[in-house]
Amino acid sequence: MANILIIDDEAGIRRSLKEILEFENHTVFTAENGKEGLSLLAKENLDLCFCDIKMQGMDGLEVLTQARQDSDIPFIMISGHGTIETAVEALQIGAVDFIEKPFDLNRVMVAIKNALKLKKLEKKEKELKRRIKKKTSTQIIGESKGIKEVKALIEKVAPTDARVLITGENGTGKELVARQIHELSTRAAEPFIEVNCAAIPSELIESELFGHEKGSFTSAIKQKKGLFELAHGGTIFLDEIGDMALSAQAKVLRALQENKITRVGGDKDIKINVRVIAATNKDLREEINKGGFREDLFHRLAVILMHIPSLNDRKDDIGLLSNFFLDQICADYGMPKKAISKDAIKSLEDLNWTGNIRELRNTIERLIILSDSEISAQDVSKYQNPQLN
């Protein structure tokens, strides 16, 4: 069932439409004017909005125009004295349907069914486009024992809603694993929101994660939804969670325990339905002992604990990875794929990869640019270090 908002300045219309929708087991919110309706659109996780066109103050077309700036929620416009011109204008702005008063029950039900179906199709279309765009970059390449174990664990974990904590050195592909888990899950058509906890200043992390109300602090000039809200129905990936401030950790713990958040400066609980995947390159047990990480949050996050091996621990994958990056980078540059000799692969396997997969990709890109038609062991020796002699 859907969360539906009714915006109408006539109490009788709101009441009658609310009764119809609640009889069909929908959750209904009501607003008596455009300003109140826009506020509810910003606060609640809504699936559909019925909006009257003729209202005092802000009319329905103004509400629709303003809502379209921040939201893609389907709007069904309603009016007791509508014209073809008005209906056409509403559809041009972005409404999905137009219904005249008094309401016909069958007409209302068909409109809801079509609007929700359209929303679902639009989500699937967006996800399909995103998957096509990310297709090459979200593959997990490798046949080593460690990577096979990771792939097998992903297949088991992905269809569930279990929280996952991914550990491993920088550059090992923790984000890639998180995306694979999401894309193989039942939430694949919903958002995947990535948060780099180390890149957000500690004084802003709570606002970024949970949103804020207008005026809650000096630069809060308007209301803002947080990343947990934006991930509703999908997955939020908390990368480098070991660097998160303790105050934010406490709020994340509450979100995991209660499935609800509160915006900074707000007093209203907002329900969320989010799968949480976290990652870190730190030893969280050591951080717990030092007082830098909450033990209760660790146990909430680590329902499934997944470690990604370093490239130095899976050097037999270097040949596969190198050829994959050769295909990918040459295609990006619009050039024929360069060959790489067996001796060059052996030279790459002999190196110490402190930067892991990220460092290997950068090295292959450098070799593609600076080498001739075939990458040789001499090229690896000459160009593997970015500081050329």
Automatic annotation (TrEMBL):
Residue numbers of 4-aspartylphosphate PTMs: 52
Any GO BP: regulation of DNA-templated transcription
GO molecular function: ATP binding
Pfam entry (one): AAA_lid_14
Keywords per UniProt: ATP-binding, Nucleotide-binding, Phosphoprotein, Transcription, Transcription regulation, Two-component regulatory system
Acyltransferase in keyword set: no
Domain Response regulatory residues, every copy: 3-116
InterPro entries associated with the record: AAA+_ATPase, AAA_lid_NorR, CheY-like_superfamily, P-loop_NTPase, Sig_transdc_resp-reg_receiver, Sigma_54_int, Sigma_54_int_dom_ATP-bd_2
Sigma-54 factor interaction domain mapped to chain residues: 140-369
Keyword Transcription: yes
PANTHER family: TRANSCRIPTIONAL REGULATOR (NTRC FAMILY) (PTHR32071:SF17), TRANSCRIPTIONAL REGULATORY PROTEIN (PTHR32071)
Record protein name field: Sigma-54-dependent Fis family transcriptional regulator
